[in-house]
Write a structure and sequence with these properties.
Elements: E1 5-6, H1 8-12, E2 31-33, E3 43-47, H2 49-54, H3 65-70, E4 83-85, E5 88-91, E6 94-98, E7 104-112, E8 115-122, E9 137-138, H4 139-155, E10 161-174, E11 183-194, H5 200-208, H6 212-226, H7 241-265, E12 267-268, E13 290-291, H8 316-335, H9 339-363, H10 373-384, H11 391-398, H12 409-413, H13 425-442, H14 449-459, H15 467-478, H16 483-491
Helix pairs in contact: 4-15, 5-6, 5-8, 7-8, 7-9, 8-9, 10-13, 15-16
Length: 526
């Protein structure tokens, strides 16, 4: 097993001079060196063949003792120094001060095929940023992260990836719903992979301390390493204010692209704090996420957010904008002029609605643009909320609609209704009116019905990681049976394909899962 190791992050950025692993404030540093906690009896549960290949490893490598030990924190690879990153963040709209990698430890960087990857263990023990926590993770949350990050990638959503899922062999105490009922669960570790784990909060922390020197060092490193198209060989030495504004614009563009994909597939992140937003516009930190079952813009899976619903599905693009404002406030210390930053934010606000409309057009098979499309889409979203209607099944089946027979519309989408008795005559009439309008609009399209169906099936997945599916895999894994993890992993590699042998997963949420913990209610420990 051979890695082409790099150390761009640790060599370019200031380290915490204190090396003991005590909980503390870490000023004027971007990271602290820390060693993963050895595990009692590690065991690999699943490894991604795709990510092995991406990193230049083989399936035989994954079967070695060395692989197991490295990716469960028991062996620190020679010539590497693991570290935890320092960052702050706005949590639920309020500045929370220093946060940092409380249960994530970065192992090393690997370069392969001209791509640089940071490898990070989640659940490998405490760090200076763990505050009152133990830095560990449980099997439940680890299965969810492992499966979802890979599923999102195959859906075409920008995301961090996962290399492996392992049991630590340790028992970890957790209060699942924060209601005073802690219990021991199986400990687990996920190996996350990303070009960078930097977040908005990585910059906010230095700005909050008025540490302009460290802030500039970090922003310049980020631009030179991850946004190098913004600099030429002669400007690398001195990045100017215009470069910072272009950098901010790129971050805004990538973040918008990411969140529009979330809306397209019905993904709800659940905890969009500024420390959980990637500077590269990647989906990061799979905690209390969920997938829309019934189309419900006001739904959030996060019990902590149940009252205010700040991070509900429908507001996700607006929350990204709010978070971008916080990043702009940090970058302002380097630019000292608001105009350029404000222009980027105004452009995001405008593009947000334009991109959302384009995405929704694609979901209903429109390849041309008409002024009244926004009205057609708004009426559709209203209809979807008349009675509980499964988002994934509705849009997938809608591709079978033919504009020459609009009266068949209700029959085509019938499978997506959770309770057919709730589809009253008034509901049917409203839907039939919409199908008439939709049929008229489709008849002004130049593409064939066959091409429309193909286009729709490329953007409307047949299979997503529904919450109950993940919970079934977790329940089996807790009994030592990992077959369902593998089945779902392989199913979700082809989310747009029909996969007839997996048709059972193209189904509405079962009634038993409606109010079950892990299916409808999730906490930040999820």
């Amino acid at each position: 097993m051979h890695f082409d190791l790099k150390n761009t992050f640790t060599h370019s950025l200031p380290a915490d001079p204190i090396t003991d692993n005590s909980r503390r404030q870490v000023p004027k540093a971007c990271y602290s060196f820390v060693t993963p906690k050895p595990t009692a009896n590690p065991k690999l549960v699943h490894v991604s063949p795709e990510m092995l290949d991406t990193l230049g490893l083989s399936e035989n490598d994954a079967k070695t003792k060395a692989f197991l030990n490295i990716f469960t924190g028991n062996t620190v690879l020679e010539n590497t120094k693991p570290y935890a990153m320092c960052y702050g963040g706005h949590q639920f709209g309020h500045w929370a001060g220093q946060l940092g990698d409380g249960r994530a430890i970065n192992l090393f960087e690997v370069e392969h095929n001209n791509l640089n990857w940071k490898l990070q263990l989640k659940g490998a023990g405490e760090t200076p940023y763990s505050r009152t926590a133990d830095g560990l993770a449980v099997l439940r949350s680890s299965v969810r992260e492992y499966l979802c990050s890979e599923a999102m990638y195959h859906l075409g959503v920008p995301t961090t990836r996962a290399l492996s899922l392992a049991l630590s062999g340790d028992q970890v105490l957790r209060d699942v719903m924060y209601n005073g009922n802690p219990a021991y669960e199986k400990g687990a570790i996920v190996t996350r992979v990303s070009p960078s784990f930097l977040r908005f909060g990585s910059y906010e922390i230095h700005a909050s301390r008025n540490d302009i020197s460290t802030l500039k060092t970090l922003v310049d490193y980020t631009i030179n390493t991850h946004f190098s198209h913004l600099v030429t060989a002669n400007t690398k030495a001195e990045i100017n204010k215009q470069t910072y504004i272009q950098f901010f614009n790129d971050v805004a563009t990538r973040s918008l692209d990411m969140v529009i994909h979330w809306q397209r597939v019905g993904f709800v992140h659940g905890v969009m704090n500024t420390d959980n937003l990637s500077i590269l516009g990647l989906t990061i930190d799979y905690g209390p996420y969920g997938w829309l079952e019934g189309y419900e813009p006001g739904w959030t899976p996060n019990t902590t957010d149940k009252q205010n619903k700040r991070y509900q599905f429908g507001t996700q693009p607006d929350i990204v904008l709010w978070n971008l404002y916080q990043l702009a406030n940090a970058l302002y210390l380097l630019i000292e002029e608001a105009e350029g930053l404000e222009a980027v934010l105004a452009n995001y606000a405008e593009q947000k609605d334009i991109k959302y409309l384009q995405m929704m057009r694609s979901k209903i098979g429109l390849s041309s643009e008409e002024q009244l499309d926004a009205n057609l889409i708004q009426e559709l979203e209203d209809c979807l909320q008349l009675t509980e209607t499964d988002m994934t099944i509705f849009f997938r089946n809608l591709s079978d609609f033919n504009s020459t027979t609009p009266t068949n519309g209700l029959q085509i989408i019938r499978e997506s209704f959770y309770d057919i008795k709730s589809v009253t005559e008034a509901v049917k009439n409203r839907w039939n009116l919409w199908f008439d309008s939709y049929a008229d609009r489709l008849q002004r399209e130049s593409i064939s019905a066959k091409a429309k169906k193909e286009n729709m099936n490329k953007v409307n997945p047949k299979y997503v990681l529904r919450n109950y599916m993940a919970q079934l895999a977790i329940d089996d894994a807790n009994k030592g049976d990992y077959k369902l993890i593998d089945e779902l992993y392989n199913l979700l590699k082809q989310p747009y394909a029909e996969q007839p042998k997996h048709q059972k997963w193209f189904a509405k949420r079962p009634e038993w899962a409606r109010h079950k913990v892990g299916c409808s209610m999730l906490s930040c420990s999820s």
